[in-house]
Amino acid sequence: MSSNKTIYQPNPEFAENAAIKSMDAYWALQNKAIEDYEGFWKTFADEKINWLAPYDQVLDESDAPFYKWFTNGKLNVSNQCIDRHLADKAEKTAILFEGDRGDVEHITYAQLSLRVNKMANLLRNEFGVLKGDRVVLYMPMIPEAAYAMLACARIGAIHSIVFGGFSAEALKDRIEDAEAKIVITADGAFRKGKPYMLKHVVDTALSEGGKSVEAVLVVKRNNEEVEWVEGRDHNYNELIVEQPAECPFELMDSEDPLFLLYTSGSTGKPKGVQHTNAGYILWAQMTMEWVFDVKGDDVFWCTADIGWITGHTYIVYGPLAAGTTTLMFEGVPTYPDAGRAWKMVQDHKITQFYTAPTAIRVLHKMGENEPEKYDLSSLKVLGTVGEPIDPPAWIWYYEAVGNSKCAIVDTWWQTETGGHIISPLPGATPIKPGCATLALPGIMTEILSLEGETKEVGEKGLLCITKPWPSMIRTIWGNPDRYISAYFGDVAKDGKPVYFSGDGAVLDEDGYITIVGRVDDVINVSGHRLGTAEIEAAVAKDNSVSEVAVVGRPHDIKGESIFIYIVLKEGHINTDIKNHINTLLGEEIGNIAKADHIIEVPGLPKTRSGKIMRRILRSIAKGEEITQDISTLEDPSIVEDIITKAREA
Ligand code: WT7
Question: For residue 79, which of 339, 351, 585, 636 sits 20 to 30 Å off, Cα-Cα?
Answer without folding.
Answer: 351
